[in-house]
């Protein structure tokens, strides 16, 4: 019996050209009881000193709320320390990973309990937001920046590269009760600026 031959570099390149990458999968309605977990939206307990509420509504291109979606945030802590470990499910009031997960309600709203991130390396503080929804083949990435620090915003590489109207879509709004509101518009005139990261642009 003859041994199988090893493909030549030319054959390998030809095969790669013929193969079509497998597309990302829509998240589907099954996530509602597969991905959310108890208190996943609480990066810190609500009674924690300095705790704030980050909330908002997700809208589609027609301005309608999106009920079947899931958001994740990652952030620095109040001192600007970015934790190197992966997000943890621990919600014991002591552990901190800077990561949380929250589904949208039937009204398209979401809410996290967390702390305001501090500045990391002198850059404008922000929440990194990842968005999943039924009908999206790939997740979306954006940022929610804290309002009020124009000097830090002017020195931020991303914010300084955008037009004024584009920057506005990445700025959270301070509500009268001290909470932060960050609405996401998937399309339309108020479309949120979405980002592409290395290895996540396929």
Descriptive key words:
4-stranded antiparallel beta sheet; 5-stranded mixed beta sheet; mainly beta; 10% helix; 202 residues; 3 helices
The percent range for strand residues is: 15-25%
* Main beta sheet strand tally, sense and closure: 5 strands, mixed
> What's the count of strands?
9
Work out the oligomeric state of the chains in this entry: single chain
Whole-angstrom Rg: 20 Å
Q: CA-to-CA gap between the ends?
A: 42 Å
Backbone structural class: mainly beta
Can you count the helices?
3
Helix content estimate: under 10%
Mean pLDDT: 85
Write down the secondary-structure element order: HEEEEEEHHEEE
Task: Give unreliable regions as ranges.
Answer: none
Shape: globular
Describe the structure.
There is one protein chain. Helices cover 10% and strands 24% of the residues. It has three helices and nine strands. The strands form two sheets. Strands 1, 4, 7, 8 and 9 form a five-stranded mixed sheet that branches. A four-stranded antiparallel sheet has the order 3-2-5-6, with no helix packed on it. 23% of the residues are buried. The model has no long low-confidence stretch (mean pLDDT 85).
Blueprint of the fold:
Elements: H1 9-18, E1 51-59, E2 69-75, E3 99-103, E4 109-115, E5 126-133, E6 140-145, H2 150-154, H3 164-168, E7 173-174, E8 180-181, E9 184-185
Parallel strand pairs: 1-8, 1-9
Antiparallel strand pairs: 1-4, 2-3, 2-5, 5-6, 7-8
Compact description:
This protein has helices spanning 9-18, 150-154, 164-168; strands at residues 51-59, 69-75, 99-103, 109-115, 126-133, 140-145, 173-174, 180-181, 184-185. The protein is mainly β and 202 residues long.
